[in-house]
Design brief:
MetI-like fold
Amino acid sequence: MNQKKAKKSINFIIITIILILFMIPFFVLVINTFKTTAEFTTAPFSLPTSFKLDNYILAIKRMDFFNALKNTAIITVLAVALNTLVATMTGYLFARKQWKLNKIIFMAFLASMVAPFQVYMIPLVKIYGGTFGMSNNLLLVSIIAAGLNIPFAVFLYHGFIKGIPEELDEAARIDGCNFARTYFNIILPLLKPIIITVVVFVALGTWNDYLMSSLFLTKMETRTLAIATQTFLSNHTAEYAPMMAGLLLGIIPVLAFYLIGQKYIIEGVVAGSVKG
């Protein structure tokens, strides 16, 4: 018993230290939103002398915060919805149809996960931004964001569906369901845990994306939160304090989303690891 208690105590201490190390950057971010840029530069780890909201007011105004929030939300929601629909259907097809072509395409999906976005960056900009002139289009950015996350999502859905007994499909076919109806009525409801897990990954990646969005969204009215924070940087000056306030404002919606859905997120991760 003493060994178990000692082991638990050691684990608790280690986890606490790791938590503190991870929380330090966030703590520094929060306290510096109440300072001036000069105070941040000279003493970034000191506590603020006052808790004024000037930086937040400036960030909301300079970033056109609510417009940027709307653009980011539109892109994220569309990307998540499109990714979920396409990736679940593709994963189901790959898991149930053992065609040679499917195996080749699935291997291509896995191979594409290795390549970083920079490999696709120039062709995407050249084709969609140059040839088709589709820059500053929120729908285009949503489609690209969904597409870039499809290989990883298909990989997870494929593994999860492999753990679902094929007898369910056979029973559905006996009842008169075709392949599509079996997917929507039988398989899709069973994917809830892994869907929540994938949605979190895709949503966080899309919400925080800077590089891909900055390539296509160049106008003020189409900027996302990640791009809008660049407003405080110029060739000669950097307003760090209001920029940190803008960063914190951009984090809050995602943090709230995670705190509200953390129960389902944890269930999804556990179920996905067991069945996948």
